[in-house]
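Hi support team,

I'm filing this because I wasn't sure whether my run with magnesium ion finished correctly. The job status page said complete, but I'd like someone to confirm that the output block is well-formed before I use it downstream. Pasting the exact inputs I used:
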Amino acid sequence: MIIQPFSEKEPTRYLGGGFHREVIVHPEDSNWVLCKYRHYFANKCIPNEISNENFIKASFYLTKLVHSIFPNNIADIRSACSEPFFEIRQRIIYIDYAKDYVKRKELIDSVLEKTGYRLDTNYKNYLVDQSGNIVYCDVFLPFYSSGIGHGRFDMPKIAVSIDELPNDKKDIATKYLKRLETLTTTA
Ligand SMILES: Nc1ncnc2c1ncn2[C@@H]1O[C@H](COP(=O)(O)OP(=O)(O)OP(=O)(O)O)[C@@H](O)[C@H]1O
Ligand SMILES: [Mg+2]
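And here is everything the job wrote out:
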């Protein structure tokens, strides 16, 4: 699959975009989206907070983990790649953004409590799907730019949360957590 840099010129597939990304429907499967990092596609460089080479890998595992804990409220991820810099995510067919801050806050607080991660509060990251679920679609930033060991999440909290999952989900989530730990300590 060749990934074209200028999605905004493909209005039939273009879904949205913010500071970091442009999001388009996956050209080969409309159940998924491509999230392309603007800075990479514009000039092959990426903003400071995502400049660590392990960023995209750690972001993938963190997204998988938070999705396992909140399957209806965090969009799943299928793959993440650094050359070129993009992700493939579950496409959310949405009827609106979750403009009500109180509802967003409920999800923000639960994710914080179960993972230690602070979701971006901007309403454009919260889609209301056809079943009425609020689904967070933004990237997970795994690290602070201060470097090794400075995860934006709480490893022991995530470990407790995945321990509460059913066995079939727990096994794979435990593998994701180990991978995230390695990436965080060697970043
Ligand atoms: N999984 C998805 N399914 C459907 N639409 C999506 C999905 N992810 C993102 N979008 C659309 O694309 C827009 C931008 O996505 P996203 O928040 O990932 O970009 P961003 O560059 O990180 O934004 P910002 O940096 O401003 O928060 C969303 O507001 C939404 O309209
Ligand atoms: Mg966003």
